[in-house]
Fold this sequence. Notes:
- By secondary structure, the protein is α+β, with helices and mostly antiparallel strands.
- It has helices at residues 4-7, 12-27, 93-104, 126-137, 146-156, 168-200, 203-239, 243-270, 272-278, 286-296, 300-315, 319-341, 347-370, 386-466, 470-497, 499-504, 512-524, 528-543, 547-573, 575-613, and strands at 31-35, 40-46, 51-57, 65-69, 72-81, 85-87, 108-115, 120-125, 143-145.
- The protein is built from 20 helices and nine strands.
- Helix 19 (547-573) packs antiparallel against helix 20 (575-613).
- The chain is elongated.
Amino acid sequence: MPTWNSRGLRGSTLEDLINMSNDKYRTSHLALVQKIPTPIKPINIDQSTRHITLAYFDQKSTVDYIGVVQGIPVCFDAKECATDTFPIQNIHEHQIEFMREFEKQDGISFIIIYFSSRDEFYYVPFSDIISFWERSENGGRKSFTYKEINKMNMEKMRDSIDFKNTDIKTLFRKLLLPTVLGMIFSALFVITDGIFVGKGIGSDALAAVNIVAPLWLFSTGVGLMFGVGASVVASIHLSHGKVKVARINITQSVVISSLLLMCTSTLFCSFAPQVVKLLGGSERLTPLAVEYMLWFVPFSLFTALLNSGMFFLRLDGSPNFAMMCNVVAAVLNILLDYLFIFPFGWGMFGAALASAIGTTVGALMIVFYLMRRRCALRFHPIKMSRKSMQLMRRNIGYMCRLGSSAFLCEVAIACMMFVGNQVFIHYLKEDGVAAFSIACYFFPIIFMVYNAIAQSAQPIISYNYGLNESQRVRRAYLLALKTAIGCGVCFALTTIFCSPEIVGMFIDRSYPAYDIAVKGLPLYATGFVFFAVNIVSIGYFQSVERAKYATVITLLRGFILLTACFFGLPLLLGDRGIWLATPLAEMLTTLFILVIYISGKKEHKEKSVSLDKMGCTPT
């Protein structure tokens, strides 16, 4: 049996550091972690000082420390190693069993090891400890090395993101690439429906899908609203070290958004013909629209979850997995669309079912990710007490206010489709709606790219806003703005010079809608640059908790100005005015944003002058 004076003081340097850290966490109300003393039986006592000089351990030790960190139970051992090789025998079997049982109770077990010769500290989770232990038990190496630990930690850090210290351009690029790629695959998700429906079923089917598209945009908007709201709140809580609160936020957002969409989906499907009529469906288009709607709308909650989950995964430092969720959903949709529409001949039912399956699989990937205990951001049980329900209602209300402009952005596109369908069917009949549907398929693709840019900047802006790092916030916003404007110029030029090829992807030249769309798309593309500025600016205002500005801008561009332009311009310019309505609304909104920017700059300048006169330094 080991004695106290032979081994008990090993690791004292590391333990002193841990004890000081635990004291700091306790006084800062971040964690409560206690050193667990091992009972000893004294053998020799110095009678002059009453100090124990020799003793035996009376019981087997469990671990050095047990406590709670932001609601998470933790237990760990402190190990100090003077060489690059750590013997497995220094971790005892009863400690392994204790940590195993602790993990089964939803706690987190680990060791902190200090390689004193290198002056380096490492966190080794139980999953790694047990692999080393089992390797030893099965006749393998009886120790693990510094190189093994270092390699494991480097692999685990490959997706980690430091929002506070990393260079803004580097940070933005790291988030942008997987986000844009994910959005491109989401765009393929949208555009594939249009191509297969137009080529495999006909232009009337394309128009019918456009009639019910506002319902899909509604569910997407709900997902974005809760995704933006919860991720902004969660990122600010994370910047203050409140991990448990951040987990509760995302859980609440997923639960409430899912319940909301289950209710609305049931309502829409129960009155499907009436809903289609309300959305502008003619007698010729209504049967096709109802068939598509009844097989897609019931899966709306998965559409919302796929959109909101992207924010949570990126905030958790997993932008690549977020991209994969979109990739899997898009690839499934493409394969099943072709299979169901062409070989099987299932028509509108097949197109709707393919989209529903793709969305559901992508959303379930997110659910499984957020259920993993190793994730910093994951689902957390919601209490059903009266006080908890009151807090949840408050949290949901705040999230909805923060994310309302994201919801309104999607509803604005739905409004554009709804009002546009009414105007086009009035002036150009069903062929006009079919031509407009091509623009509506193309428009969300542009929106998704701009939205990807805004979403890439969002966690950077929110996190640094929570830390009052105003210069980093400004640099992130300007970088996102320049990127979006560059993309807008490219999209506009491509659409203007390649409109016949774009339209030809959806319908054949034999349809009257082809010529209408080829003439109209170049006019429609003139608003893409203004659209870029508006979407990124809305994202910025959401990220800095200025939801009022974001909401006003969204209402202007998506409802007030758009509706006025759609009904007013055709009276002045005829058919050309219908296509120019959206670009004009976007341009006027950009001018409004410019007014906000100039006013804010002037106000800041006046404040600085006032502070200078008082002998103060502006912050």
